[in-house]
Amino acid sequence: MPDPDHRAGLFPALLKHWRGQRGLSQLDLALTADVSARHVSFLETGRSRPSPEMVLRLAAALGIPLRQVNAMLRAAGHDPIYDEAGDALPVGVLDALSLLKTHHEPYPLIVVDRTYRVLDVNRGALAVLGAVLGGGSPDGRQDPVDPATIVALGLNLARLTFDPDGARPHLANFDEVGPQLLWRIQREAFADPDDGEMHALLEELMAMPTVEPDWRHVDLSVPSDPALVLHLRRDDLDLRFLTMVTAFQVPQNVAVEHLRIETWFPYDDATTEACRRLAPVGPEPGGR
Q1: What DSSP element (H or E) covers 131?
Q2: Which whole number is the average pLDDT over 116-137?
């Protein structure tokens, strides 16, 4: 069990830090977590030591990521409870993703992590990305690729969107999609100030020549759109998708919490027919 003595003052500092990040007063946090404001004050000054249950209650009220909840538990002298073992996903989650991929054919479905690194795709996504980016596959080769190869390529959906040598030339409505995606990433980075990878991605995107100056400042009072229309165009191919991002609710595993599922729905009949032509329904290459 972690030794609370050498961490004296760390939990109070973390609690105060996250409360400040969420813009809450001690009274606001107390009301949200259903505890007394006096107790919150005692926790922030170190006069009281929280139980594991109290740490979890406060973390839930503050919407703290699971990785940081574990850090708060350690700081309070308790064992972490959420699995942080690498990027391994539970079998049940993998089975659910496989089912989603299959049932969404022939339309694209892309699984990414919190930094938009591509973890998995279905056949529809392979076909559309290959057709739009050229060469019959996302990495420019003539031969079709399977999902395992996509992961090995290290593709990042956010970088691909803003890259002048990537998808940017083929995004007909980049002026709409670009700022929305950038602002979403800014919000996600602000939500976890200690996530170095997310902040590094944001800095990299901000430095790209395709980012307009007035996109660099997000208005946090305006909610992020849950769905966007993506208009892709290359030569005679003209595709429009309604894209939605979903996540697992109440995850008990850090890797699962980081999963994002990008589901693309055809926005018109022409896109529906194009997807059926590009990715005829059949056995999934490299599938489970």
Answers
A1: helix 123-133
A2: 84
Distance CA 217, CA 244 (A): 23
Verdict on whether the full-model pTM lies above 0.85:
no
CA distance 93 to 272: 28
Question: Pick from 243, 248, 247: which is nearest to 271 by CA?
Answer: 243
Helix/strand/coil (H/E/C) assignment for every residue in 3-45: CCHHHCCHHHHHHHHHHHHCCCCHHHHHHHHCCCHHHHHHHHH
Which phi-psi region, left, alpha or beta, contains residue 250 (left: φ > 0; alpha: ψ -120 to 50)?
left
Joined tokens for residue 35? 């505890």
E strands in the chain: 109-112, 118-121, 227-234, 237-246, 260-266
pLDDT tens digit string along 64-96? 888 889 889 989 999 988 877 656 677 888 899
**205 residue type, one letter:** L
Phi, psi at 227, each rounded to 5°: -145, 145
For 255-271, write each residue's pLDDT tens digit.
788 889 999 999 999 99
Q: How far apart are CA 140 and CA 178, in angstroms?
A: 23
Residue owning tokens 């229309």: 229
Residue-wise pLDDT for 242-256, tens only, equals 999 888 876 677 778
Task: Supply the mean pLDDT for the chain.
Answer: 85
Q: Which residues of 211-226 are buried (b: 16+ CB within 10 A; e: fewer)?
A: eeeebeebeeeeebee
The answer to whether the beta carbons of residues 144 and 285 sit under 8 Å apart is yes
120: number of Cβ within 10 Å: 24
Decide the pairing of beta strands 227-234 and 109-112.
Answer: unpaired
Identify the pLDDT of residue 42. 94
